[in-house]
Write a structure and sequence with these properties.
The protein is α/β, with parallel strands linked by helices and about 525 residues long. The protein folds into four domains: about 160 residues, Rossmann fold (3-Layer(aba) Sandwich), CATH 3.40.50; about 140 residues, Rossmann fold; about 80 residues, Luciferase, domain 3, CATH 2.30.38; about 100 residues, ANL, C-terminal domain (GMP Synthetase, Chain A, domain 3, 2-Layer Sandwich), CATH 3.30.300. Helices cover about 30% and strands about 25% of the residues. It contains 15 helices and 26 strands. The strands form seven sheets. A five-stranded mixed β-sheet has the order 11-12-13-14-15, with helices on one face. The longest helix has 18 residues. It is globular and about 70 Å long. It starts with a helix and ends with a helix.
């Protein structure tokens, strides 16, 4: 049976056309409206010249128009490339030059960038999802009413690309991860069953649309015929507004990176027995400090708490762990658990042999969510997508995540950190994540992150800590060193410290570690130039 992501919308619109699909800034879009609007836009894309296999770039902020454009691209037999509208033009240009879209869809607020971007993709044509007469475009929203809203037949297959998500590349050039319809559908099928998502659910839409967490929000909602409540990007750094949003919308499911949840916990905006409608609180993308998790579980005891794990290359999430009881200690380790349906997780040594229990190894992923690879980069694909040494099928592959993990005596997988955050200093191998865990266990620390900076001298790599204090606490570097000395050896205690009001976040809501590293590098250079220690 050939299933595509657009079929989820067709089925839900057939079942309950008058039900609400999208809520955003007081605006609601019914399933029938979403179905019809995406059909019209799909026909406009085809008439504009888009053919099967083409890419459609979405220069559109998070909004109902963006979701309409996603489904329209799929219905037109194309794949879509969601762009971060806050990115510099040069970065967007590199993405467009790589994916060579047939069309760029924009809105009035992003249209001014089109002129500069055309230099990177001269063969692309543009269209506007609203009306801006001063901008040259092949068609605008007002033109779409002339296209038929009836169901449109698609020819694309589940094995074809649904979207390409561009992530940061180690060389500085964004790398495009190809995700197929089937990749997403396998996860959505499992997640809707496991979480019991139903038509009455009200689901958060917090992550940006170029971040793969949003894929679950959108397609999980549509598959169940539920409501997705999109959050405006500017709300991400305002914990009081986030808390009020959950209450006012009566959300039943929240899904985000842990940084947001930890920020809300540290800001004290979660009340006792808060969010009575919330049934599930899910996180993915990075480690959730245990003190923050305890804070949430004590105040929202009626919700189900689930830790999801998975890189973009493995589609949304590959493992899950239901935290059934509130951790007893702030230093308790939370596992990433076991594989989601159809997934495979392996902890292997450097000879691709299974690592013994409790020994750290490289984490590999295989199974139904695994991406075909990187867009037009077979060499990078070959480097990290390897033949599965434990399978008879010659086409079975595993992906090297770059994460370090161990299998506990309980059979669950525990994430240790990144292989690229494991450093060697003064002859010692140090995992920076272990230092961060210790910092989060100190009273008076609202947030903290640790990076390593190269000095270029005898000292080599130095450990640097960026931290946010809680008001009223003495958390000077001296005090923090004393606290850390109780749990860490001296060689793991940071030697550079920097206090922040809030830690910088990237566009996906994660801690912007490259920004922190640059700040410490600048400080180190200034100290060396000034003859300081």
């Amino acid at each position: 049976m050939n299933r595509r992501l657009q079929d989820l919308l067709v089925q839900s619109a057939d079942r309950a056309p008058e039900s609400t699909a999208i809520v955003f800034n007081g605006e609601t879009i019914r399933y029938a409206e979403l179905e019809q609007a995406s059909n019209r836009l799909a026909r406009a894309l085809r008439e504009g010249g888009c053919v099967r296999g083409d890419r459609i770039a979405l220069l559109v902020p998070k909004s109902p128009e963006a979701l309409i454009a996603m489904f329209a691209a799929l219905k037109a037999d194309c794949s879509y490339v969601p762009l971060d509208t806050s990115s510099p033009t040069a970065r967007l240009g590199r993405i467009l030059a790589s994916c060579e879209p047939a069309c760029i869809l924009a809105v009035q607020s992003t249209a001014p960038a089109l002129e500069a971007l055309k230099a990177f993709t001269p063969n692309s044509w543009t269209a506007l999802l609203d009306d801006a007469p001063e901008i040259e475009a092949r068609f605008r929203r007002s033109h779409l009413t002339s296209f038929c809203a009836a169901r449109i037949e698609s020819q694309n297959q589940g094995s074809e690309a649904a979207h390409i998500l561009f992530t940061s590349g180690s060389t500085g050039a964004p790398k495009g991860v190809v995700i197929t319809h089937s990749n997403v559908l396998h996860f959505i099928d499992w997640a809707v069953r496991y979480f019991g998502i139903r038509a009455g659910d009200k689901i958060s839409g917090h992550p940006p649309l170029h971040f793969d967490l949003s894929t679950f929000d959108i397609y999980g909602t549509i598959a169940a015929g539920a409501q997705i409540h999109l959050l405006a990007p500017e709300m991400s750094l305002l914990p009081h507004r986030l808390a009020e949003f959950i209450r006012a919308a009566e959300l039943t499911q929240w899904f985000s990176v842990p940084s947001i949840l930890n920020h809300m916990a540290r800001s004290g905006v979660v009340r006792q027995n808060d969010f009575p409608s919330l049934e599930r609180l899910l996180w993915c993308g990075e480690k959730f400090p245990t003190p923050g998790l305890i804070h949430w579980m004590q105040r929202v005891p009626h919700a189900k708490f689930v830790n999801l794990y998975g890189p973009t290359e493995a589609t949304i999430a590959s493992s899950y762990y239901h935290v059934a009881r509130c951790p007893e200690s702030e230093t308790a380790e939370i596992p990433i658990g076991g594989p989601c349906g159809g997934e495979l997780l392996l902890v292997l040594d450097d000879q691709l042999r299974p690592a013994p229990v409790n020994e750290i190894g490289d984490l590999y992923i295989g199974g139904v969510g695994l991406s075909p690879g990187y867009w037009r980069d077979p060499e990078k694909t070959r480097q990290v997508f390897l033949k599965n040494p434990f399978a008879d099928d010659p086409f079975s592959r595993i992906y090297k995540t770059g994460d370090l993990a161990r299998i506990g005596p309980d059979g669950l997988i525990y994430l240790v950190g990144r292989s690229d955050t494991q450093i060697k200093s003064r002859g010692y191998r140090i995992e920076l994540g272990e230092i961060e865990s210790a910092l989060h266990g100190i009273a008076g620390i609202r947030d903290a992150a640790v990076v390593a900076v190269e000095t270029g001298g005898f000292e080599g790599l130095i450990i640097c800590c960026a931290y946010v204090p809680q008001p009223g606490f003495d958390v000077s570097p001296k005090k923090l060193r004393q606290q850390l000395a109780r749990t860490l050896p001296s060689y793991m205690i940071p030697s550079r410290w920097m206090e922040f009001d809030t830690l910088p976040l990237n566009g996906n809501g994660k801690i912007a570690r490259p920004v922190l590293k640059q700040r410490f590098e600048n400080e180190t250079l200034a100290a060396v130039s000034g003859g300081k220690d």
